[in-house]
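REQUEST FORM: STRUCTURE PREDICTION
Request ID: SP-0412
Submitted by: Lab K.M.
Chain count: 1
Length (residues): 246
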Amino acid sequence: MRLTFLGSGDAFGTGGRFNTCFHVATASTRFLIDCGASSLVAMRRFGVDPKEIDAIFITHLHGDHFGGLPFVILDAQFVCRRTAPLVVVGPPGLRQRLHDAMEVLYPGSAKIQRGFSIETIEITPGRAHQVGTVSVTPFIAAHESGAPSFALRLACDGKVVVYSGDTGWIDTLKDASADADLLIVECSSFDKAIPGHIDYGTLRAHRHELGAKRVIITHMGPEMLAQAEAGRVEMETAHDGKQVEI
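STATUS: Completed
RESULT:
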């Protein structure tokens, strides 16, 4: 399994980084974890063919995590000429929010006949859901987004990757990360508490409770990114284009 950070930034493009989007390639499939508003641009930048993506897994319904979906769908229709089905997986409310986003950005686009099908799957916490060769288990996150927000545990081809999504510290992260090969965790601030997000001090204090073999920080705000670039962050951090073999 190879994971590429197509976007490792926060909602505001701190440091010139793209919104959250991770590309995962395995022997059996290609999928995205989150698809923020800038994700199609990031795919072009890093040489990822959108037509080869089988599924997109969404943690929550904020624009920097799902707002790229209308652009990916329209690109599939008019540029890539996609014919294979596309599966979009996320929390309850995803289907309506995606429809609304497409209609706001490109009126009429949600109703156009396409040359491929879109299967929207709304998942609920507490159990694993099988999507192709990927098993995805959602865990409740501490983040307000107008719909449930999730941390996602994804298992495929014998490997497990977990993404916290946006969240304040919550004990479900311990269950989500248990024995995972990789945990990607948001860390928006260095020492300032921000509702619905994790700061570095809190993350460091709880690191021993997270059972993942490897932890990488992403979604850094200005202060956190400055501290990381100054070498004051002991944990591994992400950057756009970073690749990880799992």
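NOTES: The chain has one domain: 2-245.
Reviewed by: T.R.
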